[in-house]
Amino acid sequence: MRILHTADWHIGKRLAGQSLLDDQAFALDQIVSYIKNNSVDVVVIAGDIYDRVNPSQGAMNLVNTYLKRINLDLKVPIVMISGNHDGKVFLDGNSEWFKATQLYVNTDLSKCYEKLTIGITNFYLLPYIEVTEARVFYKDKSITTFEAAYERILEDIKNEMNHDETNVLVGHLFVKHAKESESEEKMSVGLVEEVSQSLFTDFDYTLLGHLHHPFAITHDTIHYSGSPLKYSFDEAKQPKGFKVIDISANTHEFIPLEGKHEVIEYHGSYKSVVEDKVDVGPRDAYYKFVLTDMESATEPMATLKKLYPNTLVLSRQMDVADYDMNTIDVSEQSDTEIFESFIKKFKDRKPTEFENETFNQTMKEVIHETN
Amino acid sequence: MRILHTADWHIGKRLAGQSLLDDQAFALDQIVSYIKNNSVDVVVIAGDIYDRVNPSQGAMNLVNTYLKRINLDLKVPIVMISGNHDGKVFLDGNSEWFKATQLYVNTDLSKCYEKLTIGITNFYLLPYIEVTEARVFYKDKSITTFEAAYERILEDIKNEMNHDETNVLVGHLFVKHAKESESEEKMSVGLVEEVSQSLFTDFDYTLLGHLHHPFAITHDTIHYSGSPLKYSFDEAKQPKGFKVIDISANTHEFIPLEGKHEVIEYHGSYKSVVEDKVDVGPRDAYYKFVLTDMESATEPMATLKKLYPNTLVLSRQMDVADYDMNTIDVSEQSDTEIFESFIKKFKDRKPTEFENETFNQTMKEVIHETN
Hints:
Two copies of one chain form a homodimer. Chain A has 371 residues and is of the alpha/beta class.
């Protein structure tokens, strides 16, 4: 029993204004090829099939085309749920007709308890939910966080499920990263959207969508497939692909997908780029350029596009040659000292009384809130 | 073999800003009741299921709900085509899945030749087409009118069809009104969209959508079903419903539908309406008021809505008590005399030289163009 796990197709999404429909088709073609040439018993699409609640005709055409290839031509069952980007009716308006060919869509919280058995595996299809949805559904005002909402939902599913069988949860949510909560200093106060890994221990596998990095979490039974392509320059260095879970063999592997265009964020000198003196990447890649020495450039975007026609973003980088902030060890400084050196660096003066007061007041509030 | 023929649902359409989703559900409920309580072998929906190329989620929900009731719950085959208001992918994106339960959708010109047999009847599903579509499809530059386009399409269908069987064409187009072309003086130069009745003589029945009046044409074998509800104040006095064609008995009947709200255009005196002295209709009807003596009215819309909460349009009617233009027999006047009396009436003076010149020049151009 082999499950192909994918998610976050975001069909219709643009990269800095550039339509990605051809790129998306290029990626989905590779998924279809994989299914043709390998043993796949079911395809799981864990939400965010579309990028918008009201997708365009072009986006709907693309989704329908690939669902048909997988489900009708190759006759492989599909299991899918709605993500936070999906419009429910666009995804499951015709789900009653889909069932006849084993295309199963769930967008309803109330239906996540329905056991769907394919082969030796039971699937529970948990669509993306808002906290308020769960609060209203359970008529329980104490549900004020994602953690509380999912705890309640999963408790109910676990109570109903046969723990001797193989049970797979399909979800679209943000699981807390183990490392972050254990050893690393947290960078943010913590996202209210985050849900503990411990909630999912009773499932043989938890196949997720939402985070675009396939290794956003490294866990034997909890998996993100990641998105099939790079959807922002922040994702430029992420691997892209899908996962294959073999239930019987109890193995999982990541299958990479090739991009139709590379996505590259290049930092460097404008002159060396436009004089073609540096190797920045393939001519047809999608580029974000962050460049120095652009002061005297006229029409820099047009000039760049002559060499790199898919230049999508260009921004100017300030000269940071004398920027030595990184060498200061802030762990040995007080908050006030860090603030003072910041103002010194960028304003070349001491903070004013008002600035100091505002800073201290804000710090007090932050400390109060996080405790 | 009884066919229920409906069209022009225009789900999502608004009447002067008022959502009609509830009204549309009310009408469709009656169609579902009819199907439950009478013998219906197939439902034909002849285009304009939606009102917009990109329907809202609410509109899609409504359409899906009623297609499910008819096709999945009552298990009655449905045959439908796209009209000029429909987005193709919203209508037939999932048509491959629909076929399994005899829900047949066609939005493609290239597929109108495919014979679809249900019971003793062959259906040919001809979606709404643009002239340019036909020109490109046939690679024939001589196709410059709807008439030429439909002539070509129907010739091809007729060549392929078995004339000994029962053949029904489902279309979304504007058939020329027999009376107009024979006896009546044409009011307009003729719409380029119009298509001759004679093109359809080989079909046992031609079931159409596009015109909202169920008797836009009176013909034994060519039928408009009309829209299920009133979609403008111009349609206020039109009967609304659907048709039932009995193929074996060779009969057709019109089944009226009740509106959830009446649609009324009322002309009269503002004072008598707001003083509640006249019977204008039910309190909850959708109203367009065209009223006189509104000169001293303050907040007339709010005042009207207190009595008739669904007042959607209010316009002022000029006082026409002394307007005796109708008593002049213009057929005995020259164009220049008519123009002079018009200026006299509204400006109380003779036309200026410039006005006369402009009028004469324009008339010359009109006469030149119509000859």
